[in-house]
Amino acid sequence: MSKRLNMTQKMCIPVIAITLIVLSLVNVKAEEKKKDPMLQEYMKKDPLLKEWLEMVDFYPKRDQEWEEKWVGKKIDKTNVDEVKELLPEIAYRAFKNWDKVYAYVEPATINWRPSPGFIEATKKYIGKVTCDSEWPYILHNYVAGCPFPRPGNDPIKIAWNRDRGVYESDDYQYASVVFNVYDQKGRGRTVGCDYNRLYWAYRTDIDPKPELPGNKAGIYRTTALRVYWPFDIAGLNMVVIKYKDTTKEEDLYLYVPTMRRVRRLSAGQRCDSLAGTDAAWDDCDVYDGEVRQNDYKYIGIQDKLVWYNVEYPYPETADWEGAYFCGLPLQKLPMIIMEANSNISNFCYSKRIWWIDPISSRHYNSTLYDRKGRLWKEQFIACTKSMKNPDNPGNNPAAMTQFIDWQAQHASPWHFEPPQEGKKTGPYMNIGWDPILFTPEGIRRMGR
Amino acid sequence: MKSRFIFCLVVLVFISFSMVTFCVCKVDKTYALSFLEGTLNVKGFMRNDSAWRIRHGSNAQEGLEPWDLILCRNTFQLEIEYKPTDWLTVFAIPRLVYDASLDLDRSLERRIASHARHDFKVEDDLREIYADIVWNNWRARIGKQQIMWGESDLFRMADIVNPLDISWDYLLYSTVSSFEDIRIPLWALDLNWASYTGYQWSVEFVWLPGFIEDGFEPHKVAPEGANWALPGTPQFMVDSLRTSEPDDGWENSEFGLRVKGIFRGWETALFYFYSRMDHPTPKEDVEQRLLRSVNFDHHGHGEALIPGVGLYAHPGKYFEYPFTNRMGATFNKYHELTKTIYRGECVVTIDEPMIDRYVMDRTYERETFQYMLGFDRPTMIRFLNPNRSFLISAQLFQKFIFNYNHHMKDHSPGGTTTDRYQTVLTFLINTGYRWDTILPQLLLAYNFSGEGAILPQCEFWIGDHWRLGVGAHIMMSHNMREPYFGGFRHNDQLYTWLKYQFH
Fold it and tell me: Omega of the bond prior to A210 within 30 degrees of 0, cis?
């Protein structure tokens, strides 16, 4: 003990002390975040949510002062200017200019967490996944779960989280989805379809995990869009195959009932209208393209008003102005705001502004700009209040999507058909799809 | 007066039915008429196809004038699907067709032999009925059905299983409905095994028993005097195409096998089909039979076909439908750099029957090889359509006859008539305006032996229920002998379709 400390050891003491102080301050700040009563309530109710929030290190906080003023209030053209900054650009214009558009404000909630399998996979591979910061932004060592649970303000990592890290279950069916296509006069038509997805790799919940056996082609996921209405395109069945190799383009196959055969399609058709709606093929799941097809810019985390916790199926809206989700609940929640600039020459969109939920990495809004940089379209997602699958109560797939082409004054909301006897309607998760149904031969066999 | 009444009746029935179903759809807001707790679904449509000539007929079509209504085909079709369990689906398509053109214009009716009129005017058929049984990787489809192989559009090459009904309008139904409406469904067993692992292999075995219902079915052609009648084919010969069909029996069985896989993005299939030819071959002694028929025809049946030659109309079995072996391959591949789908197919036919240009009862059997190479590319042409790409598609077809001699004539529909080889190019461009409610299309076809066609059309979608279309066929040929459009080079026409679809 009598030995005197040397100079280096003397210097270490204040450094360690300062480090400890900083760490404790950070911890205090984190603890403060966790003290939000809303958060406490949810974390207490669901330990898995607590575990997930700790993993992503994000603790949303309710803006109590704002909520005291707004909760229960109706937002319409008379007062929308007061919340202009909280709304997407086209949504604001719709509230401002269309008489029938209105919404109610609800207190903020958290109604999402991934499955235990997804949380476990994320925990298992945390820190092992990397991505290139230069184009084509290749993802390395990804196996399953969320690749970057703490992406910080790195837009590439956020983009990969959105691409690979959104928990949607290992397969699902959106049964009886109806697109309404409205023009300015409320005249419209409908397209009815089933939207099915199967993950071949990076599976976390249903055996075989993490990948289907014999996946020689290296398929990541397959999505099938099967149209059942109107009559002349009923039976169209399009399969989109995405690969684990992030530099490889997807494959598209379309079963055409009048031809009675499967046609292979070019991925160059991504700008074309999806079944005659305002959405392009590229707008499936808000963005169905590849990470490498954009350059990204992180703008920040901001509180925004989003359609969250809505009921489904939502009654069919009757006319054009009513097409904008009238009467649905809006909640003020923190969103990552990000800009995605297309790096594909001659692509229909020059820029997209995305709102991404930091907890789920799910899109809540996408504002789209044309080649000349003019405001063009907007896609707004409304997520469901609860899941039908009791084994997976925390998931919240889209209950409906609003798509507005502001330049053409045209809209294509989609929602689920009302329940009918003997007909599936709504989202169904982890149902154990037969992979053959997602192959070119499979869609041919399903056809007439 | 009677013809006007029939026309008005057709229009009235069409409109009334449309209105009733429209109201039903509006009220219940559903997308199929459902029964038995949703296991039985019924959909359907009513459709009118009308066509007007825009040129005088050829010599063989004397009396056909511009603006003659040569097609007024009214179709009522249901599609019924019954799915009592996950592994069983029963599907049926009943169809009623009535072509009012003969009743609207008696001069057209008089051109067609009386016994052939009803078949030409009316079709009341359970067109398709089959059951799908799915069990793990297996799927069996049993019943009357259409089976489609191949990659080509507009011209058939690997699509060899079902014959065609070309008595209506080959061009119209190939461009508007991709042969679906004019393929003749056949009774068959289609057994399919598929795997999602590895190269996604699939194996398909097809058996057409040839003894159920009508047994073997060849192509169906128009009666003499009809707008789309085969030039130079008298009615008794057309009748003979049917009467020459072999008797129903196991010996008519046709078999096919197809194996498919996906190898590094190349979707490839090999197939083999053992079947009778769908077009006829004259029997070896056909000329003798025809000449003999003069002596046997005590009732003075018909008149001299070719004055001075001595061929007289007499019913008889003048044709046969020999078996052949056909094998081939198909492929398609997406190329990322050019954003283009490349596709192709080829067929080798062993002992394909040929006839002689000059001697009616001389036939040959030769190996033939045909292939198609094509591409499909979506292309943005912003000054024409800023919101949607144009699909540009082109195909090259070639057919070679091995061991050819200049007497030989391949008499299949679209067969080679001028040389040992045939080269055809097709070009298609289409797009969609106003959220794909206006769908224009232009199709060009050119045969290097000296014929071609320009086929523009446009379809309009009006709401969920109504479809309206308009188009034209403009055909060009140096002579009447060219295989595709030569015999029909005066058959330029304008056509329209109006469709009401329900549920």
Answer: yes
- What is the average per-residue pLDDT within A434-441? 94
**Residue B59: is its pLDDT beyond 80?**
no
Which of B259, B435, B459 to mutate against chain A (most A CBs within 10 Å)? B435
DSSP element (H, E) containing A40: helix A37-45
The type of residue at A152 is: G
Which runs of consecutive H residues, i.e. helices, occur in B204-315? 235-243, 286-296
Residue B472 confidence (pLDDT): 94
CATH topology for the A116-446 domain: outer membrane lipoprotein receptor (LolB), chain A (2.50.20)
Q: Are B151 and B372 in contact (CB under 8 A)?
A: yes
Q: What is the pLDDT of residue B19?
A: 54
Inform me whether the C-beta atom of residue B192 falls under 8 Å from chain A C-beta atoms. yes
Owner of token pair 């081939």:
B328
- Give pLDDT tens digits for A66-76: 999 999 999 98
Q: What are the tens digits of pLDDT across the range A333-369?
A: 999 999 999 998 878 899 999 999 999 898 899 999 9
Cα→Cα distances B160→B148, B152, B273, B326, Å: 8, 12, 8, 9
* Gyration radius from chain A CA atoms: 23
Q: Output the average pLDDT for chain A.
A: 86
Instruction: Give B267-286 pLDDT, tens digit per residue.
Output: 999 999 999 999 888 887 66
Which DSSP string corresponds to A61-101?
---HHHHHHHTTPEESTTTGGGGGGGS-HHHHHHHHH-TT-
DSSP three-state, residue B273 = strand
Could you write out the DSSP letters of every residue in A376-426?
A: EEEEEEEEBS--S-TT-TT---EEEEEEEETTTTEE--EEEPPPBTTB--E
CB contact under 8 A, A278 and B467: no
Enumerate domains of chain B plus CATH numbers: 2-283+318-502 (2.40.160.10), 284-317 (no CATH)
A445–B192 CB contact, under 8 Å:
yes
Asked if the interface predicted TM-score (ipTM) of this complex is over 0.95, the answer is: no
